[in-house]
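User: Predict the complex with calcium ion.
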Amino acid sequence: AKAEGRNNYRFFLPSMHERVKERKTIEEDLRNALEYDQLELYYQPKIDCRTERVVGAEALVRWHHPDRGLILPGEFISVAEECGLINRLGAWVMNKACQQTQIWRETTLPGLRIAVNLSPAQFQDAELVRSVTKIMDQTRLPDGTLELEITESILMNNPEKAVSTLNELKALGVRIAIDDFGTGYSSLNYLKRFPVSSIKIDRSFVNDIHVDMDDKAIVDAVIGLGHSLNLEVVAEGVEEVEQHEYLRDKGCDFIQGFLFAKPLPAATFESWVLERHG
Ligand code: C2E
Ligand code: CA
Ligand code: CA
Ligand code: CA
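Assistant: Here is the predicted structure with calcium ion placed in the model:
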């Protein structure tokens, strides 16, 4: 037991140290990323479950690191949140996504909707409503075109404040989606109280939907609940034909997943949609 303890100790220290060091490095590099234009948005199609037509896209950020190549948001969003860079990063994402969508709507992809992820710190930022107002003024996206995806935890921290922020966003024509639905701790009660327009069933429930009875039951219940509250229901992480068929038969409205497409760079997304709809 003693040897084991010593081993743990020996391995624990350097790895903690490494992690802290790595975070510091990412943080410094991330400042440069914003400065030197190393971020890029990828777009994953959102598909009508029944007609299989593309109705919109979710913008997902990528980082082209000069030494490390392409980095996924799982590696840097939480660092951006901790070091206070998330508001700048989030503002960049929102601007870019809305400008791109405006261009697409005026040229090759009329009617396209866009979803943007919002982190909790952004939602709490006093500047959020003002900056969304500015973007909506500049891009003149019609009501219902921009959707912000938030997680359940955002609503629970300060429910009164959350309601008023959501109402201000709604007044700007922005729709709100609850992301990763079902994975949070909150009660279902908030769906009634908050001005939300759609829920996204988390990937973890969709994974085994065609084989696991519990996941089936959960997904059935979420679709029923969503529809009885007049919400659009989106399923994410659809990888198999059987999952698509199950969701379609249960009346799910929209789906996203590798079955159709991974998140794609803007130009690739555009040609993918055009080719698909020929
Ligand atoms: P999310 O919002 O739940 O986004 C869905 C994630 O699942 C994306 O990962 C997407 O590439 C992946 N995905 C989509 N379809 C499938 C599928 O069929 N199978 C599997 N296995 N995965 C699928 P990504 O792009 O790495 O993003 C991870 C998370 O990072 C996002 O989860 C979101 O929470 C966060 N994120 C991404 N972009 C932004 C951003 O601009 N701002 C903020 N605040 N967060 C972002
Ligand atoms: Ca999302
Ligand atoms: Ca998710
Ligand atoms: Ca997520």
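The beta strands are 39-48, 54-65, 69-71, 113-117, 146-151, 175-181, 198-201, 232-235, 254-255, 264-265.
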